Every structure is written in structure tokens, then in C-alpha cells.
Design the sequence.
């Protein structure tokens, strides 16, 4: 677990402290951010295995932030945590929307025990990330100006290396 890096983003200081403390005590390397700007800067400077995001934050919500983070780190696993649901929406509705829109790996509702969070993290780390390799290839092509076929070949090589645990 010590090799697994986690970013926790929450605008509530008490929730941020409690969540990051529980994760750190479980042996993970933890960075924190209290807003979207700091989270993006952190993702530009460090690589993470999992990001844990509060759903409702001022300015940029967890959905928007995860979309931005996935542009920087497309293979990062994600957990969205919320204490408040949208009006008239069920938890299942929101979870489905999250998975569709940004491919969130898990959705948890506050109040949350550290056991549930740590079990969810462990489960996510033992399976292949939910990533659309074709979308990654297209993003690589757009960002670098290379041909789509070259980006697709590079993406396939990356996927093969990831399966071999070489990276």
C-alpha cells in the first residue's frame, strides 16, 4: 500500500482531515487539496493511483473536477463521496450519471466509515482501471499533433505494459 498514492479533495477541513488521516494510517501516501485549483496543480505535479473527491464543492463540483483530472491522469481511479444528494435524485441515479459522464469508479455516501472507504480503495486498486484506451489514443493525438494511428499504437503498447506491470 505504501506505493499507492492518493489525492483527497474536500472543501470541508474536518472531512478532509479525517479522510486523509484514515487513509494515511492504512499505509497509503496521501496528498490533500481543499479546492479544484489546488487539486489540478497537485495532479500536474504528482501521479496518483486514486483520487477521492467530494461531490459538492463551491465553484467546481466533483464531476467537473474529475473530468479535468482525467485529462491529466487518464488512468487514475476515482471515488466520489457526497453527503448531499441533488434534489429529487436518488443515490443510484447520481451513481449512474457519474459512471456515464466521467467513468467514476465508485460512489460513496457520507457519513462514511473508514472501513468502507478503505475496502473500496483496495477493490479499485486490484482491478484494471476503467479507461477507454481509444479515447486516450485520440487525446494523445490531439495533444501532440501526431497521427491517430501512431497514437493508437502507443496506447496499445501502454496497455500491454500496464498488464505486464512494467510501468
Sequence:
Amino acid at each position: 500500500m505504501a506505493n499507492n498514492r492518493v489525492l483527497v479533495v474536500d472543501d470541508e477541513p474536518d472531512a478532509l482531515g479525517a479522510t486523509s488521516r484514515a487513509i494515511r494510517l492504512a499505509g497509503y501516501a496521501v496528498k490533500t487539496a481543499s479546492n479544484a485549483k489546488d487539486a489540478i496543480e497537485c495532479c500536474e505535479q504528482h501521479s496518483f493511483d486514486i483520487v477521492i473527491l467530494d461531490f459538492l464543492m463551491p465553484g467546481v463540483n466533483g464531476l467537473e473536477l474529475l473530468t479535468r483530472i482525467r485529462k491529466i491522469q487518464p488512468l487514475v481511479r476515482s471515488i466520489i463521496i457526497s453527503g448531499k444528494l441533488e434534489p429529487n435524485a436518488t443515490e443510484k441515479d447520481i451513481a449512474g450519471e457519474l459512471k456515464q459522464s466521467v467513468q467514476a469508479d465508485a460512489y460513496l455516501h457520507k457519513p462514511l466509515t473508514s472501513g468502507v472507504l478503505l475496502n473500496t480503495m483496495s477493490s479499485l486498486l486490484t482491478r484494471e482501471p476503467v479507461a477507454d484506451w481509444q479515447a486516450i489514443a485520440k487525446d494523445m493525438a490531439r495533444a501532440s499533433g501526431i497521427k491517430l494511428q501512431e497514437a493508437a499504437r502507443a496506447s496499445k503498447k501502454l496497455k500491454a505494459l500496464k498488464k505486464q506491470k512494467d510501468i
